[in-house]
Amino acid sequence: MTAHGAFRARGRFYEEFRVGDRFDSGARTLTGPDVAAFAEVTGDHNPLHASGATAADSPFGRPIAHGLLGMGLAVGLIEESGLHHGTTIAMLGISDWRFPSPVFIGDTLSARMTITAKRPSSRPGRGVVTRRLELVNQAGAIVQRGETVLLVRTREGSGA
């Protein structure tokens, strides 16, 4: 908030993103309570995510995190960087999301974001930015990846 009470964006505007730009997030270790909270919020109580006995008999040999929890972490880790704070209007879509490796409790995860495309919106003050997200574990393996499309404010549309 400014002295007059108006919100001031600190994220990047459409004009500040370039195709090929890459950004790396900080890291976060996934905990058992994180997985339990996600299960509680979504209602997805599949024993693969919580039951040691069931998970031990699975191909993974231990509990795995929900796939959508990993996707949410990838978005959140990038969001924590402040790159989109106050400049993103909406997420328009998710495409080609893949899960090449499981995410386990105790994994330390970070995210990489690469701008793959951008174009002006049909409405003034807005642009469309496509970004490739990769969720990476402590061993450097990409455990999830895909693209998201954002509607982003232009400087002209910021009211600044």
Verbal overview:
The chain has a single domain, classed as Roll (Thiol Ester Dehydrase, Chain A), CATH 3.10.129.10. It contains 3 helices and 5 strands; from the N terminus they run βαααββββ. Strands 1-3-4-5-2 form a 5-stranded antiparallel beta sheet.
Summarize the helices and strands and which ones pair or pack.
Elements: E1 22-29, H1 32-42, H2 52-56, H3 67-79, E2 88-98, E3 108-120, E4 126-136, E5 142-153
Antiparallel strand pairs: 1-3, 2-5, 3-4, 4-5
Short note summarizing the structure:
This protein is α+β, with helices and mostly antiparallel strands.
Question: Keyphrases for this structure?
Answer:
160 residues, alpha+beta, Thiol Ester Dehydrase, Chain A, five-stranded antiparallel beta sheet, 3 helices, 34% strand, disordered N terminus
Give, in order, the helices and strands. Answer: EHHHEEEE
Strand order of the largest sheet: 1-3-4-5-2
Q: What would the principal axes of the Cα set say about the shape?
A: elongated
Distance between the termini: 13 Å
Oligomerization state: single chain
Largest sheet: 5 strands, antiparallel
Summed up, the helix count is 3
Number of strands: 5
CATH architecture: Roll
